[in-house]
Amino acid sequence: MRTLLLSAVCALTIAIGLSKDVDTPVDNLLPYLQRCCLLGQEFARSRLSCDEAKLSAAHRQHIAVSNYKGVSNISCTISASFCCQEALEREVHCDQGINAALAYSVCSQQTDLTAKACCNWCTAGRLRQKRGDSCEELSEEIPLHVREAFTSCCQQIPSMKTQRQCGNNQCNNNVTCVAPTETCAFDDQNCHYRCIESSMSCGVGYKMDELGHCQDIDECALRIHSCAPHEVCFNEYGTYRCRTCNCEE
């Protein structure tokens, strides 16, 4: 996240210089950039795309109410777009590739290039661990998301091919933990937990508390949703919905 924000700062420094909005020091941009970056990441997770026109429209209200002196509106759009693309590649497409590798699927059958790459790197990590070789860190010249795919799959090998343990929950072939007491047992997309090999982490839309429990993130209350100005945000478990308000005056 630190590297991501620093890259966004560099991109915005150029944009601000071109627009002659230079009366605000770059250091003071961080709270603004972080907010816009979070909005871009959430847009990628909820919409599974980074359409520039839709992204700009969805953030227009946020830009208007949180604009800083000396920062052009385009600055937020640049930050949001940059972070959206990063999240789309790393959290969506790469995870798809890792899950495919864990399910022993053919990597070349993945439709997205990033998914194919992460699938291959995950497979390479599993083969290295199987041979008993060390899971040494790869060169920083290799993109971060494929390095993480290799390392996570090399360090943690599942004990079973189809059923995996994640605490007291069983995992299905899609590497998603199914909690028996949760309604997500009938809808994998809303599960609280997911298995990353033999370890446990929270899925998208949840965060882990100090006790190791996954708690829902209220994107609406935190204002990190990607709803358009004319839409109302409704929080749901693990996600949220944007609905058009047809309220009468």
Q: What is the makeup of the main sheet?
A: 3 strands, antiparallel
Q: What percent of residues are in strands? A: 5-15%
**Helix/sheet category:** alpha+beta
Helix content: 40-55%
Number of domains: 3
Oligomeric description of these chains = single chain
Distance between the termini: 43 Å
Which shape, going by the Cα principal axes? elongated
Strand order of the largest sheet: 1-2-3
Rg of Cα set? 20 Å
Mean pLDDT: 69
DSSP summary, beta strand count? 9
Number of helices: 8
- Give the helices and strands as they follow along the chain: HHHHHHHEEEEEEEHEE
**Weakly predicted, low-confidence segments:** 1-6, 11-25, 158-200
Helix-strand blueprint:
Elements: H1 2-18, H2 30-47, H3 52-58, H4 60-66, H5 73-102, H6 113-130, H7 144-155, E1 164-166, E2 169-171, E3 177-178, E4 193-196, E5 199-202, E6 206-208, E7 214-216, H8 219-222, E8 231-236, E9 239-244
Antiparallel strand pairs: 1-2, 2-3, 4-5, 6-7, 8-9
Helix pairs in contact: 1-5, 2-5, 5-6, 5-7, 6-7
